[in-house]
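Write out the bound-state structure for manganese (II) ion.
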Amino acid sequence: MSDAFNADLHCHSLVSDGTLEPAALARRAQRNGVDLWALTDHDELGGLQQAASACAEIGLDFVPGVEVSVSVGDQTVHVVGLGIDSGHAALRGHLQRMCEGRDARAHAIAASLREHTGVDDAYAGASRLAGNPALISRTHFARHLVERGVCSSTAEVFTRFLTPGKPGYVEHAWASLEQAVQWIHDAGGLAVLAHPGRYRFSAQAEQQLLARFRDLGGQGIEVVTASHSAADWRKYAQIARSFGLRASRGSDFHCPRESRCDLGQLPRLPDGLRPIWELLH
Ligand code: AMP
Ligand code: MN
Ligand code: MN
Ligand code: MN
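---
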């Protein structure tokens, strides 16, 4: 990466389901050679001020971001907003209302995990691990089940219990795609479809999603992310070109032990793409 601009435009702090403080992430990004860094907590803006101050102190270019949860049919899709106004009251309100159901969902997940794993303190365990009581996520349950010895990794907990069709999975109605893009635009941001290779759509449904996203004014898709294989990088590079979408790059870093990829440690974008960060700095 030494000869290329190192943008990392996707990661999480303990304000959502990461484990590090925003300021610690900023320092880690700089240590790892990141030139332009975005914090994109799930459905939360609470870490952005600390991240911005830390970046101002150490001289790192910062992009305030968010990763909005979206329901598309029976799947959850993520839309990253980049360059948002971090104090935007309407966006904050939309996200808060959308997350009101998280606590009831967490109780339902805990009840189901009690039945299927025998772990009887999953709600207390997940809330203890959550840095933000308003945002108990599946990741916190996964970490608690690893602590309890039910599985040896969080990835295994997801595979066995926390993904659609598995016993601990509880559906939730997140934002619509239209709402997420609108909220991000209203807050002055660019909308980027996160890790498209992670979803389980048919080829036709995927094309429809991409077309709908572009027609709503969505500006970019993640091409290089830790969730993608090398084949996915090529596939989504081609899709970015054919849909006229900008390309983004982000580690989706959550936690030093769990994450497949550390901040800034990703291959560069394939050639012939228009990077989303040209619109950001
Ligand atoms: P939630 O918003 O509570 O549904 O939690 C979503 C988070 O769970 C994602 O942002 C990921 O960090 C994590 N996650 C989802 N699926 C998996 C998986 N298969 N393996 C590991 N982590 C996952
Ligand atoms: Mn996450
Ligand atoms: Mn995501
Ligand atoms: Mn993410």
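---
Residues 45 and 86 are 6 Å apart (CA to CA).
The mean pLDDT is 97.
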